[in-house]
Amino acid sequence: MLRRKPTRLELKLDDIEEFESIRKDLETRKKQKEDVEVVGGSDGEGAIGLSSDPKSREQMINDWIGYKPQPKPNNRSSQFGSLEF
Fold this sequence. Notes:
The chain is built from 3 helices and no strands. The protein is mainly α. The longest helix is centred in the first third of the chain and has 31 residues, at about 15-45. This is Anaphase-promoting complex subunit CDC26. One of its GO terms (cellular component) is anaphase-promoting complex. One of its GO terms (biological process) is cell division.
């Protein structure tokens, strides 16, 4: 494999301006998103992850990832098979 000298990178004024514009755009989007969450939180529907019921939060996560848990049987024959004591 051939070795080459490191390439020198130069920071140009256009690059700085582009970075600043993208950063400002992201900040405004973040502010708008936070404002929507605050306004939606007063209705009770905007704050999805802030519910106090852990079962509903667990159910919401299961629905989100597509997990459908199967109920576990509670009888001994299903746990130990056909063993007799």
